Amino acid sequence: MPKIVKTSELADDAVLLDVREQDEWDAGHAPGAVHIPLGEVPQRLGELPEGEPLPVICRSGNRSGRAADWLEQQGFEVANVEGGMKQWAFEGKPVVGADGTEGQVI
Prior knowledge:
Layout: E1 3-6, E2 16-18, H1 22-27, E3 33-35, E4 54-57, H2 62-73, E5 78-82, H3 84-90
Parallel strand pairs: 1-5, 2-3, 2-4, 4-5
């Protein structure tokens, strides 16, 4: 089972794997995140950012938990971000939209 990391333990510019859908990403994401929707993760392993453990995030923690479980089975060292982007935004961490302006979590 992948470890769990709290958003408060991550830097505002932390490199994260965001597995939400495109519209969610466009509305708002963490500035250091890399976007690979959950359904595309198996085909895009070569695009995973460097760093271990790799924090995986979604809206609330469910999809990222599934992604983290699967990635761990493939030999990656990952951590599920507890509370997801909802918690990230709640804690006042930066959220940027697709155009670079302030975003929101949908």
